[in-house]
Every structure is written in structure tokens, then in C-alpha cells.
Amino acid sequence: MADVNRGNRPLSPHLTIYRPQLNSITSIFIRITGNAMLVSAILVVWWMMAAASGPEYFDTIDGLITSVLGDLVMTLSVLGLWYHALGGVRHLIWDSGHGLDVKTSDRMGWGMIIGSVALTFLTLIAI
What we know:
Blueprint: H1 14-17, H2 22-53, H3 55-65, H4 68-95, H5 102-126
């Protein structure tokens, strides 16, 4: 039978009453950083292909990647890489059945955020 009252039903209020939690935000950013790293990988491959193509083309692409905008994109890529990696470690811990309580999960979320920033700074210093 057709539902004749389909257009008159109220929408679920979950979006208006839901308070974002640290775990949901970190999960969303893991997905975002995973997709953003694809863009970074394309830039690195483009840079390597330019190196194989010849000095004139390489100088153009190298100038783009080593510009202020390029440095910003690559720095954010390193941050995303560390964040995504630490998120993967957190998921491996969860897959083993540990750290699933709210307190430990929140600590691991903050550890991901603080750890990714710290490891990004250490990576930039090491370069």
C-alpha cells in the first residue's frame, strides 16, 4: 500500500539536539585527511614526473611546490599524514578490544590531536 501521509511526517530532530563529541569530530577529520592526502600524493607525483620530464618543466613545478602556498599545502599534508596514522593506531587499539570506554577514548582522541601537531613540528625540524 502506498503511504498517503508521507509528506506530512516530521523530520527527525537529531541534527538540532545532537551535541558533537570528540570521537565523532576526530572520525570526521580522519576521513577528511585521508581524502586530502590524495591531493598531496598527486602533487608529489606531479613533481616527480616534472623531474623526469626536463629541467625547464621541473623548475616551473618546483617553484610552485616550494612557494609559500606550496609549503603551506605540504605542511598541512604532513599534519594530515600524522593525524591519519595516529587515528589508524587508535583504531587498531579499539579493534583489539581496548580503550573503548569514554574516558580512555577521549584521551586517545586528544592524544591524536596533540600528537599529530607535535610530530608535525618534529618532522619540520628534522627536514
